[in-house]
Write a structure and sequence with these properties.
The protein is an all-alpha fold. Helix content is about 60%, strand content about 0%.
Length: about 140
């Protein structure tokens, strides 16, 4: 458990260890969601009457399945992005996405141009994980 620093019980953003780790690992799926959205075709298409009519039945509909899968993945991706927007100021948005979604450390982000203290960054991170754990 040494890799994840869970907020203490006196912290205002305290959540139980299991919930914290669940939130961390849920967020680390962000790159998978992005890649899946680029692979799954967007099947939202209006009805056209220039082709033959399609007979529908109660059987399996692959278009509906794809649309539902795409909507669920998009919902998760949007939830993470909107929660980051709520919790951090705009200049830190891309760094927080890289941290929570891609697993980059504070020191890696500092080399990429992050210019706030580690303490301040940790406060934003704790707030984010608290908020996202309430939403998932």
């Amino acid at each position: 458990m040494g890799k994840y620093r869970v907020p203490s019980k006196t912290n205002k953003y305290y959540i139980p260890t299991e919930d914290y780790i669940t939130a961390v690992h849920w967020c680390l799926r962000y790159p998978i969601w992005v890649s899946e959205l680029s692979i799954i075709p967007d099947t939202s298409k209006a009805i056209t009457y220039d082709q033959d009519r399609v007979q529908t039945s109660g059987d399996y509909d692959p278009t509906v399945e794809l649309a539902m899968k795409r909507a669920e993945i998009s919902r998760k991706k949007t939830l993470l992005e909107e929660t980051v927007r709520e919790c951090v100021p705009d200049p830190l948005y891309k760094y927080m996405i890289l941290h929570v979604g891609h697993g980059r450390t504070y020191y890696q982000l500092e080399k990429e141009g992050l210019n706030i203290s580690e303490y301040e960054f940790r406060k934003y991170k704790q707030k984010f994980y608290y908020e996202i754990s309430q939403k998932i």
